[in-house]
């Protein structure tokens, strides 16, 4: 099943990339973050029902070290809707309004 990013989830991802590209971080860190998030999304695409339900209505999240980010998504009949690339310091439900957009 294919993942489709909500526009604001895309912006979350871009902000994370920009953060890790800032001076003071190792030059390859932004690339590692990019690959990390894409790996999480690929794992969700391969087995969408594997990840635990996180928030109603049936939103799921997937995360793994070393980055403090989770991919939050809803599994639809024909695609996976990525609602957030959520930093762990964000309020847990900051993305809920995206369910209606």
CATH topology: YaeB-like fold
Whole-number mean pLDDT: 94
Radius of gyration: 13 Å
Shape: globular
Tell me roughly what share of residues is in helical segments: 25-40%
What is the terminal-to-terminal distance?
21 Å
Q: What is the number of independent domains?
A: 1
Low-confidence stretches: none
CATH architecture: 2-Layer Sandwich
Q: How many H/I helical runs?
A: 2
Spell out the CATH superfamily.
Answer: RelE-like
Number of strands: 5
Quaternary state reads: single chain
Q: Which CATH top level class fits? A: Alpha Beta
What is the string of helix and strand elements? EHHEEEE
Describe the structure.
The protein has 101 residues and is an alpha+beta fold. It has one domain (3-94): YaeB-like fold. The protein is 33% helix and 26% strand. The protein is built from two helices and five strands. A five-stranded mixed β-sheet has the order 1-5-4-3-2. Helix 1 (7-21) runs antiparallel to helix 2. The longest helix is centred in the middle third of the chain and has 18 residues, at 29-46. It is globular, with a radius of gyration of 13 Å. The two termini are 21 Å apart. The model has no long low-confidence stretch (mean pLDDT 94).
């Amino acid at each position: 099943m294919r993942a489709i990013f909500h526009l604001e989830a895309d912006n979350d991802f871009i902000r994370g990339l920009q953060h890790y590209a800032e001076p003071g971080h190792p030059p390859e860190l932004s690339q590692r973050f990019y690959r990390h998030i894409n790996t999480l999304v690929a794992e969700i695409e391969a087995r969408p029902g594997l990840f635990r339900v996180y928030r109603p209505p049936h939103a799921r999240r997937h995360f793994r070290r070393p980055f403090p980010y989770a991919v939050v998504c809803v599994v639809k009949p024909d695609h996976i809707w990525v609602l957030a690339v959520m930093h762990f310091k964000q309020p847990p439900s900051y993305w809920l309004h995206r369910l209606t957009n």
